[in-house]
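Lab meeting notes turned into a lecture example. A postdoc, R.K., suggested we walk through two folding results consecutively so the class can see how the record format repeats. The first protein's sequence and structure tokens come next.
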Amino acid sequence: MSQLNVVMTAALVGPAYLAFLWLAGSTVGDYWTKGIACRWERASSALLSGLLAHALVASVLLAFAPAWTGASLWLLLAGCLVSWRWRRPTLRPLLVPLLLITGYSIACYLLLLSFHFGPARGNNVFWSIYNLTNITPGDSPQAALQAQYLLLGSKLTGVSEFALFDRPFLSGILTAGTLPAFGIMFEPAFYDYTDLLAFAYADLWITINVIAVLPLLSIIARFSSGRSAFIISLLLLASPFLVFNSIGLWPKLAALAIMCFACTQALRDNWLTAAFLSGAAFFMHGSFLWPHIAFCGVIFFYLVVEGIKRSPNSWPQAASVLATCVAMPALWFAAEHLSGGATPLRTYYLYNVPVAYGLHHGADEIAREFYSSTNSTNLMNLPWMNMIKGLLPIETLDLILNYRLSNEATGWRSLGETLFRTQFMRAWFALGLIGGVITWRGLFSADSSRWLPRLALIAFFILPLIPGLGLYRRDDHFLLPIMMFAVVPVLISFCIGMQTIRAGTQTIVAVLMLSEFLMVYYWRYPPGRYGGEFHAYYIAASSAIAAVAASCIVWPRMRWLPLPGMLRREP
């Protein structure tokens, strides 16, 4: 099979799976989507319902008949078709959001291909992803590694450096239940994938991650309106944060989408469902343990207050939420303990050593080495230093403070690197340096004093810092790749901040932000020209993204995209 045929065949996997989730989620998720007026919330709830239903069926087959795990997709589809006559799901209102994220996932996949088939190409697609997004070739294929281990187990060769229980593997279950369904099988050689499998896996997880676009658009629709909502939507879709994390393949955006689904249920007083979904986000990616605890803690506190004030029925609900909050991660850690599997990633966070180091050294030895390399004063100061670094654009400040005449010439690539590091590392600047300034403006606006923005800030930014800063002994730890959930309050504050400035200023800010994004995209591409092998597809693709977004922002007649602020009947 030629390379062109490989990438085109792989490109069918994501859209096909998305269509399946659309059908399955509209059928089995009818209970969860009832009463949701916003089309973005409703579409994301339906797709995520289908995703979790597929994960459940695939888990059962993995436990009892691993060879038939790929059939989970078709079993669930058959069940949906059988129940169609009685349930009669409504599909049409979800069509526009489905087409939007399908197109967006295809655009991200094409952007990856344009980068991969240029001079920045790595040894395989995972190294190309690292060159583009800074997400390592050990992180981007994690769901594939987990799926391969779950499906083949003892038959694998070359698996000595892998620990299954190092991370929750809901993403691996989904991968094991999807790729074989399309006839794409894993081989016994660990991390030795054919091009078809690697590209199909990449397309699958780009598509799953892109589902997060829908709940993020629902946040924009809730906290902004009209032209401002449309501009913010375009900036979000064009941002390196969303594009790079979608292409990066790790399941953190999928976990963020599930957490937003939990928030949707909590706002509709479905407390137990919200707690369960929050736990499911943790099973998708372990970094969501802290927001799971914080989110359920906020719900528990609210129900206790309600019980004290006027509603005795809140007490059983509070107890159920607390039990679910504890049970979900407890189930995982109990399974990890019973399996006796190694967890070297934990030593990486606790003692700042390479992950592989934890596979070959005991925890006591690692701890002794760590404490002998530092002192009690630095350990006490570390949480506060990390907190300050997390709230400031340290990389940008470093460029300014360390500027010297004797340094190498500071060009646009130096600035591009600084802007990339700032948006990649700092949760508050996920939308870039200018976006961070607008976010700070929104945080101190009067509208931010409403209960919903405050709760979002508490549950997804302030409370997760407490255990994180107290337990993780790593310099500069709470970065955006860890605190992906912090995007919820950041986006809310950004929406509020943009609403507070005039229309003309909004246009200027948006164009400047797009210029910043473009500089980040350009910087990720290697400098210089390469005779006979330079293919500037990636430069053309990223330029087209910025040009389309800028045209829609500057010229009102160009605003034709189905986004919040432009739909005729936006709820």
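The second example is placed directly after the first for contrast:
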Amino acid sequence: MSLVNQLIAAVFAVLIGLVAGTLFIMSDSSKNMLLTQLESHGQDTATHLGLYLAPYVADKDTATIEATVNAIFDSGFYQKIVIRSADNETLFETSTLPQSGKSVPDWFVSLVQLTPPSMSREISFQWRKVGSVLVQSRADYAYSQLWQGAQNTLILFVSLSLLSVLLLSTLIRYILSPLRGVEEQAQALAERQYIEQENIPKTRELKRVVLAMNSMVKRVQKMFAEQSLHIEELRKTAYQDNLTGLANQRSTMALLSDWLDNRQEFGPGCCIYLHVNDLQALNSALGEEEANNYLKHIGGTLSKLAMRFDPNIVGRLTGSDFAAILPTVDEELIKRELNALAAQLTTQSNFISPQDDGMPFHIAVTTFDTLASANLVMSDAKLAIQVAKKQSTALLLPDTFTGSTVASESWQQHVAKAIQNKNIFIQFQPVFSSHSTQDNPTILQRELLARILNKAGEPCSAGEFIHVVKSLNLISALDRAILEKAVIHLAEYPEGGPLTVNLSQQTIHEDGFSTWITQLLKQYAPGNRLNIEINETAALNDIEHIVWFRNLLRPTGVQFGVDNFGVHPSGFSYLYSVQPNYIKIDGSLSREVDTSAEDRFLISSLITAAHSLDIQVYAERVERNEQVQQLNLLKIDGTQGFLYGQPEALN
């Protein structure tokens, strides 16, 4: 019971006690008053009878005495009348049983005992005592009056008590309303939300409590902000180029390797490699500030071009070399953008001393297919730059720009038909708890991987069909098909572990998707056995909508996670707003955790920050036991990767 309700109950109990006490006092007072009235009534009757019956008592005329007494007794106000002679001989006596009246309940009569007093009076005639009269009034009237008074008093006091309780409860709730705010602050703090009360109460004690709570909220929020800033600075130092803000060589190669070698979801694409000739001469000609602006401009232009594609990787490999890796080649768009970039750089090169080959920069474009490795892509790009330098050309394009990357019409039709018919082959990769042992493995969740069966009935990797799905605008249809298969599987196998489905930003934004998923979850009610993940880039690009979607899932019990965590340059302060149940650290950060002190420190900081918000942390792309051992030392909650085997088919 809340404090306010306890106070109201206490006040009500006091009022009940007050009513009971008042009723007792008033009843007792009324009882004494009524007994006095009965006594006076009996005494008056005895006096009048004594005066009237004096000569008849002296003559012992019993007939007259009986007629007179009966005439008075029949009025119903008397319980007993006795007439005695001087020698105490009973001349006449009449009585009736005590009654309390038909309107008075028996329990009230038993509770309130009324015994009317017997009043006597001597009878004198001609200056001598001739007898006595005894009169006892009946209690009917007294009981009726006492019962009526008790009823009226009870009704009045109950009404006043209820009104008082209502007014007092309103007043107490108003006075203690700041405590409700403190309670909401505490609950919000437990849910990783920071709320400050703006209305400060005037009551001294409550004011101190509210101010103390506001101060604590500010400190916790400041601690998290400082922790986030510290980790972000560390991440920038280790993985980001200080001048352009792009990924540095280490981060670029890690991301490229993760996409091409591990996920195999990038699909066919192209690599744009830009080399600035003789950077030292550039600094001498333009000055350090202008040269830096020149390099920033290059990096910014490549970033704008890459943002038109998803996913993309843009980085500065060395002081002179930049690279942008893009999926699915749009020949006209890339040619147009690169020609514009070359023209801009050529204009700026007019301020630079001529190079030996007459070119201040070179741009080379290479293409790759779904089977290409990260090392092969970068090796081909560097060879192409060498060719561009030998040919003294600013922009070198491949002879077969799109030949290996355009899907055949039959393959496009095959993929589209498979998605429309929901003929999706589902595999899964488990996430194992850090507390798992070889004898007792504990699976936290199974992440679902969508596969399209080729014409031979064999599952294809995502890289072989995902670009087709995007080009045909079927991402949302694919996501819906996987999600529907997941909830149906959970319904058919109620004893199975949780399943995880990745959704794209495009799907979440699709008209009608929120209604569709709400109905689906209501129909199958998977609860916390279903996890939905969003890529970190998608979360950062649209935080408000992601928060809305997260709140949409919260009442259903479905868990929410952020995939590929820790690589986006915007940092991770968004965790406070999104409040996921778990995050998955990107494989590019964990792949060298057993050999890199910088990676260990960064991951440790990320885990600490996430745990402070009650968020579970899992690591992706785990391939070696040494990685698991090191991650367990860093307090990771779970690990996922090829160390535990290849993805398996979902039965």
